[in-house]
UniProtKB/TrEMBL annotation:
Family classification: Belongs to the aldehyde dehydrogenase family.
UniProt xrefs under PANTHER family: ALDEHYDE DEHYDROGENASE-RELATED (PTHR11699)
Provenance organism: Ideonella alba
Record key words, sorted: Oxidoreductase
Annotated Aldehyde dehydrogenase domain residues: 29-489
Any one GO MF annotation of this record: aldehyde dehydrogenase [NAD(P)+] activity
This protein's name: Aldehyde dehydrogenase
InterPro entries associated with the record: Ald_DH/histidinol_DH, Ald_DH_C, Ald_DH_CS_CYS, Ald_DH_N, Aldehyde_DH_dom
Length: 495
């Protein structure tokens, strides 16, 4: 366990909230800022530049100039690789600073900022660095009278808009393939968690990424985010966030230059447990750990737990016994497992869903209350509802908090119908000791990722994304290059 006095470090921290455009830290063009408070205890962290259309325009034009003069795209893949590897090394060297910023910004426990978020961010950048000089172009099988080349080229200027729940990781999933391919990027972090994005851009420049190639403009979605998505010089938008805002991204593309839009949106993932799975205790530990990790503020959280009726009582008892292990605590304490929700608005949202669960007839087995209110921060107990139906509000809508709904089913057909009876299709899980059933149900589940007898085991080598209203496109893996590159055919006649 860490021996660092994180509270003392937090007291001494003075984060820089200015934008980073064309390699320089700058104030917003009109001088406006917004106050950023920590959800841990509502302490003021500092003033952050309130980027708007003029700031986005400056960042996009800097990115366009950098792309057009080939200062980055023109470098050999092996050269970009080495620079991005240095970037990844610098992220790891700054891991304590970045972890502290992440925890103060959005409330997650410091142990996970340090052990998950920072290493995952560095690994993502390093993995795409390693991949970029190992991707080959193609020659088509044409007649002898022609030579047809199929080449993959950088797209241009990429707008990246990322959420507040995993600020560094979500940024890296877009930065890694976009930068490795030779694009320039304008990153708009959430106004709720801007600091790590700004620090990452500084580290990128220190590593040798040229000015203008990686720019960060903090600000609000309806100002900076909208301006970025509407900008005529942006070639693609990589967006991670709510389905509601994802629809706006598609609208903005239609109203501007028909830029590509890749949405990674919400989820209401089903965790399906059959009575032939004998180790119910392991399934219960897994669903509790996955649901309450990051305070439930995960798009892939297994918030709909479908359990076969014959084992449901026992399973609910086991899950309820796990909940106290995730009692909310001080995120700066290395022993804390469950931290603060990101802000007061999210606190009220989660408590509202808990009220809806009661009102619609759900039975709250454990939790269901605000915690640590005396700190001034935003905490909710890990909560488990039993007796939930698929048509209830807490089973249909994404809560983004530590609230689990247990839905009982009778047989395999009903389980599949319930699991797929959602507007979302991000992830799912099936638990069965019958290999035939596991394969059948996995094939039948309409989700981008299906786990079998586990949940959330993951790696940068596999794609992440969803079906239906969970979005389009895929982050991670080599498939992510498809989002940030164009395919060009060059047809050469041979006389």
């Amino acid at each position: 366990m860490s021996t660092i006095d994180w509270a003392a470090r937090a007291a001494d921290l003075r984060p820089d909230g200015r934008a980073l455009i064309d390699g320089k830290r700058v104030d917003a063009a009109d001088g406006q800022t917004f106050a950023k408070h920590s959800p841990i205890d509502n302490r003021l962290l500092g003033a952050v530049a309130r980027g708007q259309a003029a700031d986005i325009d400056a960042a996009v034009l800097a990115a366009r100039a950098a792309f057009d003069d080939r200062r980055w795209a023109g470098k050999a893949p092996a050269v970009r690789k080495k620079i991005l590897q240095r970037f990844a090394d610098k992220i790891l060297a700054a891991k304590e600073e970045l972890a502290l910023l992440e925890t103060l910004d959005m409330g997650k426990p410091i142990q996970y900022s340090l052990s998950v978020d920072v290493p995952s961010t560095a690994r993502c950048i390093a993995w795409y660095a390693e991949a970029v000089d190992k991707i080959y172009d193609e020659i088509a099988p044409t007649p002898d009278s022609a030579l047809a080349l199929i080449t993959r080229e950088a797209m241009g200027v990429i707008g990246a808009i990322v959420p507040w729940n995993y600020p560094m990781i979500m940024a890296a999933w877009k930065l890694g393939p976009a930068l490795a391919a030779g694009n320039s990027v304008v990153l708009k972090p959430s106004e709720k968690s801007p600091y790590t994005a700004l620090r990452l851009a500084e580290l990128a420049i220190e590593a040798g990424i040229p000015p203008g190639v990686f720019n960060v403009v903090p600000g609000f979605g309806h100002e900076a985010g909208e301006a970025l998505a509407l900008h005529m010089e942006v070639d693609a938008i990589g967006f991670t966030g709510s389905t509601r805002v994802g629809r706006r991204m598609l609208d903005y593309a239609g109203r501007s230059n028909l830029k590509r839009v890749y949405n990674e949106l919400g989820g209401k993932s089903a965790f399906v447990v059959f009575d032939d799975f004998k180790d119910l205790a392991r399934a219960a530990r897994t669903v509790a750990g996955s649901m309450f990790f990051n305070q439930g503020e995960s798009c892939n959280a297994p918030s709909r737990v479908l359990v076969q009726a014959s084992v449901a009582d026992e399973f609910v008892r086991l899950v309820a016994a796990e909940a106290p292990k995730y009692a909310p605590g001080d995120p700066l304490n290395p022993a804390t497992e469950l931290g603060a929700l990101v802000d007061e608005t999210q606190l009220k949202t989660v408590l509202g869903y808990i009220d809806a669960g009661h009102a619609e007839g759900g039975r709250c087995v454990t939790g269901g209350r605000q915690a640590r209110a005396e700190t001034g921060g935003y905490y909710v107990e890990p909560t488990v509802f039993d007796g939930i139906r698929n048509d209830m509000k807490i089973a249909r809508e994404e809560i983004f908090g530590p609230v689990m709904s247990v839905i009982r089913f009778q047989d395999e057909a009903e389980a599949l119908a319930l699991a797929n009876g959602s507007a979302y299709g991000l992830q799912a899980s099936v638990w069965s000791d019958n290999i035939n059933r596991a394969h059948r149900v996995a094939r039948g589940l309409r989700a981008g990722t299906v786990h079998v007898n586990q949940y959330d085991e993951d790696d940068i080598t596999v794609p992440f994304g969803g079906y239906k209203q969970s979005g389009n496109g895929r982050d991670k893996s080599l498939h992510a290059f498809d989002k940030y590159t164009e395919l060009k055919t060059t047809w050469i006649r041979i006389d």
